[in-house]
Amino acid sequence: MSDERILSGMRPTGALHIGHYHGALKNWVRLQRDYRCFYFVADWHALTTHYEDPSVMAASVWDMLIDWFAAGLDPEQSTVFIQSRVPEHAELFLLLAMSAPLGWLERVPTYKDQIEKLKDKDLATYGFLGYPLMQAADILIYRARWVPVGEDQVPHVEMTREVARRFNHLFGREPGFEDKVAAALKKLGGKSARQLEDLRRQWQQAGAAAAVEHGRTLLAGASIPKDDRERLRGWLEGSSRSILLEPEARLTETPKLPGLDGAKMSKSYGNAVLMREEPRALGEKLRKMTTDPARVRRSDPGEPERCPVWQLHKVYSNADTQAWVQQGCRSAAIGCLDCKQPVIDAMLAEQAPWRERAQPFLDRPQSLREIVDAGCDRARAVADETLRDVREAMGLAYR
Ligand code: TRP
Ligand code: SF4
Known about the structure:
Blueprint: E1 5-10, H1 18-31, E2 36-41, H2 43-50, H3 57-71, E3 78-82, H4 88-97, H5 102-106, H6 109-117, H7 126-140, E4 146-149, H8 154-171, H9 177-188, H10 190-206, H11 209-221, H12 226-238, E5 248-251, H13 279-287, H14 308-316, H15 319-330, H16 336-363, H17 365-393
Parallel strand pairs: 1-2, 2-3, 4-5
Helix pairs in contact: 2-7, 3-16, 4-7, 4-17, 7-8, 9-12, 10-11, 10-12, 11-12, 13-16, 14-16, 16-17
Bound molecules: tryptophan and iron/sulfur cluster (SF4).
Residues 291-292, 295, 302, 304, 307, 309-310, 325, 329, 334, 336, 339-340 line the site of iron/sulfur cluster (SF4).
């Protein structure tokens, strides 16, 4: 178990489909054993583009959370919470906004894209421009080391790194740091001061870990004021204090699951297979799914590479079944309904435990609320720690 933190979020979209599971959730579940994971419902993010229909928010949030736990997120291992229930995110967002260059936000690739794509919505808003900075606050407030995301989100994580670096540069140093270090070195005395300078050089130029250790020991034993000791320790270890941690995107390589019509799976296209489909509906949907368009009659040979059902076999079937599909399709030895059956069976088997884990929450919605309440409390405690350092660094610790 690593001490490093992982953070990721998802906009509340209601009941999830299997594309969400294979594209993100499966990975989240895997990570929770090895890291301290924080997963949250990005409800404020949803408002940046959907501020006009607040009525669906609550149901979307709870339905999505049920699917998270159904997929295997374990509230004992992961901290699962809702963004708006940890208002500290908003305070950090505000404080970061003070020094965030406007150009960074305008240059985020999704900005102009999305405005273009969602033309029917008025996105010439302050909130929409600012949302990548809100995302930066989401990440930085937990001092997360890794952010598991898809490719489209990588520019946001990159910008988050720049925001953290800029913040540390601006606020991670006390005023007059260099002069104070010089004065502290003088107090330390000639020989020790020269030795410390030497150890610092070995550490910062050659990365000699023994040198930095030696330097710390030297400082621990020195009879100088505590402030000077702290200052010199910062100087030894790398000058400015890092208040915010620079995160890294952790790309999940994910199979692209096609929708029932062969296009990208998306709830809004109406081509999705939900994580918890009625078993009968699941079979019906799959049997109607688009296949190789060249295969009009049962006797026409087909080509799996042109068929979205084959993409599902790549995720759901073993090598034997895959070989059976390839041969049977190209020789017209099997029909498309035959071909789809193993996928239907595998999906039903995959969904059974999800359904089972979801049931207690459906029976007793209150139990879901309680688990999420506890997650929000845990998240707030961590967020509060970071925020205290940030306030202090920005000169706000007098209240
Ligand atoms: N912007 C992400 C999305 O639209 C969701 C998100 C918000 C997020 N904050 C985050 C993802 C922080 C990772 C980390 O999918
Ligand atoms: Fe697609 Fe299978 Fe039909 Fe071939 S047999 S076209 S792979 S559904």
